[in-house]
Amino acid sequence: MAQMTEAQWQAWLRDRSYRETTQTLIRRIRDSEPSRRVEGGQDNVSGFYNSGKMGLTIQFESRTLELVTLWYLEDETHVLEYYDQPEPIALRYQAPSGRRVTAHHTPDLFVLWDDHAGWLECKPTETLEKLALSMPNRYVRTDHGWTCPPAES
User: Fold this and answer.
1) Which pTM was predicted?
2) What is the DSSP string of 108-144?
């Protein structure tokens, strides 16, 4: 399966009740190249994954988390499309000190599922637990896993 055709895309979009600004954002992500090149480092191995589903080469910054996530997205029938390194998003939240914070963050992936769309961030649980202590309004553990309320809003 490759990316959706224009007719499939229009039908998918029609079936959602997204605001015009959200539709514009999703269109821009679909039409854009990744916003940055991934880099390898001492603690990660980056690379490129040739996606049959997308008909594109997808970047990954971690072979233990991001690459495994790409394998999952590739095979998951409810995933229609996915894009690496989408444009940065502004995350607005309150720091523990009470100060208002705006952080510009580039998510790892943007995914279109059968029934919704959203960002995915691939981080180890240990990292998320530490980040939740220093940024409790940005990283939140729920009964269903981890979430980022500022990204959701």
Assistant:
1) 0.91
2) SEEEEESS-EEEE----HHHHHHHHHH-TTTSEEETT
